[in-house]
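User: Teach me something about this protein's shape.
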Amino acid sequence: MPQFAYKAVCNVVYARTRLTPDMIGWLVEVGKSSLNAPQTLEDATKQYKQEEENRLTVLATMVEPLLMFSVGIMIALLVVALYLPIFKMRARRK
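Assistant: First, the predicted structure itself:
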């Protein structure tokens, strides 16, 4: 396959695939036309990495209160499970 045909196919594949965002296909095309594809893709990688870190930060911020609440419930159940037999023994003694 000639080099030109490979680049054209690569651009079409990136544009049609659902695994990569549409912007990647456009960046491949722009990088090829400006002869600066590696730098263009590195910049896109940095941008997507930052976006992913932001999404994970938001997700962690949303999930953290739920986790703390569930741990609090488990500790409360543990305390009740430990003290309930003591209270039952005290009630029998009276």
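Now, about its shape. Residues 1-6 have pLDDT under 50 and may be disordered. Residues 3-93 form one domain. If you'd like, I can walk through any region in more detail.
User: That's plenty for now, thanks!
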